[in-house]
Specification:
CATH class of the largest domain: Mainly Beta
CATH superfamily of the largest domain: RNA polymerase II/Efflux pump adaptor protein, barrel-sandwich hybrid domain
Oligomer: single chain
Number of domains: 2
CATH topology of the largest domain: OB fold (Dihydrolipoamide Acetyltransferase, E2P)
Number of strands: 7
Helix content: 25-40%
Order of helices and strands: HHEEHHEEEHEE
CATH architecture of the largest domain: Beta Barrel
Strand order of the largest sheet: 5-4-3-6-7
Length: 128
């Protein structure tokens, strides 16, 4: 991921990410053109984690809602403040509009497993 993407994901400024790179606090890989790319494993070291539960160790969240439909992400469109996420579930497609920050934080991308959590008239996305 680029330094700008890392800054957004971590909720810090771009200059801070560059400073961390130069001081060796954040390990990167350089492209053939000399640009820094940050592996997701490096970013995950700085993201808050819930301790103790098996679900937390696997990166999954427990949730009480029972209307969950698991599938695969087929499309993510980010525009301004919103993101449109389309899931394929049992041969059918379901689309949810969420904030672009949420889509970036979850690093949603086509091909990933995710679930739609349906509550009343709302559909939320859970990355699996």
């Amino acid at each position: 991921m680029t330094p700008r993407q890392a800054a957004r994901t971590l909720g810090i400024s771009y200059p801070t990410v560059k400073l961390w790179i130069y001081k060796g606090k954040l390990r990167t890989v350089k492209t053939a053109g000399g640009h820094h790319r940050i592996p997701e494993t490096e970013i995950e070291r700085y993201l808050p984690r819930a301790e103790g539960t098996p679900a937390a160790k696997r990166g999954l969240r427990r949730i009480s809602g029972r209307n969950q439909l698991a599938g695969h992400i087929v499309d993510v469109r980010v525009s301004g403040l919103l993101a449109q996420v389309t899931l394929s579930i049992g041969g059918q497609q379901i689309t949810s509009v969420i904030t672009s920050d949420a889509a970036r934080d979850m690093r949603l991308a086509p091909g990933q497993r995710a679930a739609a959590l349906i509550k009343s008239t709302e559909v939320m996305i859970i990355r699996l």
